[in-house]
Amino acid sequence: MNNREKIQISVIGLLSVLLVLSITTNFSHTSSGELISKEQKVVETKTIAQNEDTIQETVKNAVLTIDHDPESGTSSLTAIFKQVETSVVQITSKVSTVNQNIIINGNPLESQSTRLGSGFVYDKLGHIITNNHVVDGAKAVDVRFVDGNIYSANVIGTDPFNDIAVLQIIDDYSDEQLNPLTLADSSLLDVGQQVIAIGNPFGLSDTMTTGIISQMGRLLPNQGSGYSIPNVIQTDAAINPGNSGGPLLSMNGQVIGINTAIQSTTGEFSGIGFAVPSNTIKRILPSLIEKGAYAHPWLGVSGTSLVPDIAQKMGLAKNYKGVFVTTIVKDGPAAKAGIQEASYNINQEIKGGDVITALDGYVVRDIDDLILYLSENKSVGDKVILQINRNGIIIELTATLQERASIN
C-alpha cells in the first residue's frame, strides 16, 4: 500500500457522477438562438373589467416587471454584478496529451487540447484564484478580462487535494484596473442564504446565475487526488462546465466559495453544485503563493462511519457513533501510535478493531468529522490525541501527524 490516507466512503443512493466544471473546445455550440425568460409580477386588481378592451388595459397597467420591483431583490443583484464582473476572468490553458496506442515514426501521437475555465482576482499583484483541474498540466495560461484584454499568467501554486490553484499575471497589466474580491468567512453561512455564481459556462463569458445554499459541510469525492474535500458548500445556483474556478458570492459581493463540481448524470447542471468554501481558500492560499504547495496533515488510516450493523457485530450500541478503522498504513502516524485495524474471523466477519470516537476531545460522529477536524485544526508535525473504543474499553493514544503523500 502506498503512503497515503485512503478514506472509504459509502454514499447510499449516490447514483450520479460528480463532474468537474472546466470544458474543452471540442464542445459543439448550438444555434438555437437566445432564450429569454422574464419573470413578471401581476398586481391584483379589485375591479373586474366588463369588456375585453378594459381587461387588456387593466392587465397592461397592472404588470410590473421584476426589474423595477424594489422588493424583488433584482436591483441589488444587478448592482452586485456590476460591482464584481471586472474581477471575474476566463482562463484558457493548453494541455498536451499523448496517445500511446498510435505510433508515428516510432513516437506516440501527441496532441493539444484547449481547456476553458473561470477565475477571479485575488489582489492587485496580479494573483488569480481558480481550480487546480482548470490548469492541471499547464505551466502558463491566458487570462481574459471582461473588457476583452488578455494576459499571460504562470501557474505558481497548486493544491490538487482541495482543487485550488493560484496564477500570477506576467504581462504588463498597468492598463488593467484590478479589483480584488473579498474572501468572506464561510463559517457564518446558513442554509437558505441567497448566492450568486459568476463564470463562463460553456465558454459563454460573464454569465451570472443565482440560487441558495442548499447545505453546508458536504464531503466531496476528489477522484483526481484520491482524497475527499471536506466542508464543501452545496448550492442550486446553476453552474456548468466552464464555471470551474469562478466565485460563489454572497449578497454583499464577497466570495464565499469557488465553484468546483456538479452532481449530474448528463454532464450538465441538474440542481446540485459544489463550491470549496472561502475559509479553505484563506487557509491554503498564502502557502500556495509563497511555496507553490500546501502540506496537508495525514493520519494514515482508512476507515468508515460506524453504522448500526457493524456496531452491533462489535458488541456496541446500535447507534454508537465513531469511525471504524478498517486498515492502517504501515509506518504511518496511526500505526506508530498503536492504533489497531479491523480483524476478521475465518468467515470474513468482523471480529474486532478500533473505533475512533474523539480527536483532542472533539467528538467524532463519522468519517466526515474526522477529515474536517484534521484539515481545519491541524498541521504537519502536530500531535493529536485519539480517544479509542477497543473491545468496549476506552483508551487514549497520541499520534504525530505527517505530511500527506503526493498523488504522483
Features of this protein?
single chain; 408 residues; alpha+beta; Pdz3 Domain; 3 domains; six-stranded antiparallel β-barrel; 7 helices; 26 strands; 15% helix
Topology (elements, then pairings):
Blueprint: E1 17-20, E2 23-24, E3 40-42, H1 52-62, E4 63-65, H2 74-84, E5 88-104, E6 107-121, E7 127-130, H3 132-135, E8 140-144, E9 150-159, E10 164-169, E11 194-199, E12 207-222, E13 227-235, E14 247-249, E15 255-264, E16 273-277, H4 278-291, E17 297-298, E18 301-305, H5 308-313, E19 323-328, H6 333-337, E20 343-344, E21 350-352, E22 355-359, E23 362-363, H7 367-377, E24 383-390, E25 393-400, E26 402-403
Antiparallel strand pairs: 1-15, 2-6, 3-4, 5-6, 5-8, 6-7, 7-10, 8-9, 9-10, 11-12, 11-14, 12-13, 13-16, 14-15, 15-16, 17-26, 18-19, 19-22, 20-21, 22-23, 22-24, 24-25
Write a structural description.
It contains 7 helices and 26 strands. The protein has about 400 residues and is of the alpha+beta class. The protein has 3 domains: about 20 and about 180-290, Thrombin, subunit H; about 85-170, Trypsin-like serine proteases (Thrombin, subunit H, Beta Barrel); about 295-405, PDZ domain (Pdz3 Domain). The protein has a 6-stranded antiparallel β-barrel. The protein has a 6-stranded antiparallel barrel with strand order 5-6-7-10-9-8. A hairpin with a 2-residue loop joins strand 24 and strand 25.
